[in-house]
Amino acid sequence: MESTQSSDKTNLAVFASGNGSNAVNIINHFNDKPNIDIKRVFCNNPQAPVIKKAKDLGVDTLVFSKTQLLESGLVLTQLKALAIDYIILAGFLLKIPEEIVRRYKHKIINIHPALLPKYGGKGMYGMHVHRAVVENQEPKTGITIHYVNENYDEGAVIFQAECEVSADDTPEDIASKIHDLEMQYFPKAIEQTVKR
Question: pLDDT tens digits, residue range 59-72?
């Protein structure tokens, strides 16, 4: 892919589908970083709280349907128009089309709520992951920040962080631990990656 990156600024697009806690954390982290600009939040769910949260923080949003993502070219056209350098997936539940993956090879960064390659793949997100961790009596779990390729959760790992799982932890307990790791590490890992 030809880089659209100018010498003085890196443009990010954040993709989110739901509440937006990771998206808000990322936006706030880069507020005082003049060389990194979050241009827009892309969302496939018109009811998602992330839309209002992003607007309240002064970030434009684009809402689109699954069909628009997969077939219309709308999303890729917007990415090009904004001169986006990196795409950040922050709780985005749709698979990224291959055309976008090819254009942004090693430029799409995702966070997964488990220590990949464990508990990855289609349908493995959120509480589905945490319930599987409890059912299998895992001694630890964590987060994986990785590049996105054509297959769910199979891109090269950028960073992992672990937390212990206690025998009496519920899936909700694990969700809280994972949330803390995401808040602590995701923005920093993005910053280090896009500066490379």
Answer: 999 999 999 999 88
Q: Which two tokens stand for residue 133?
A: 């961790």
CATH of the domain at 62: 3.40.50.170
- Same domain? For 96 and 11 the reply is yes
Confidence (pLDDT) at 5: 47
Is the separation of the CB atoms in 56 and 118 below 8 Å? no
Q: How far apart are CA 40 and CA 62, in angstroms?
A: 7
Identify whether residues 94 and 149 lie together within a single domain. Answer: no
In the chain, which residue ranges form alpha helices assigned H by DSSP?
21-30, 49-56, 66-67, 74-81, 98-103, 126-135, 171-195
Query: Does the annotation count 112 as an active-site position?
Result: yes
Look up the pTM and report it.
0.93
Residue 147 CA to chain centroid, in angstroms? Answer: 10
Using CA atoms, how far residue 104 sits from 2, 41, 72, 83, 150, in Å, is 9, 17, 18, 12, 11
Check: CB of residue 174 under 8 Å from CB of residue 133: yes
Q: Which of 106, 112, 128, 130 is catalytic?
A: 112
Residues forming a β-bridge with 41: 14, 61
Question: What residues make up the domain containing 44?
Answer: 1-105
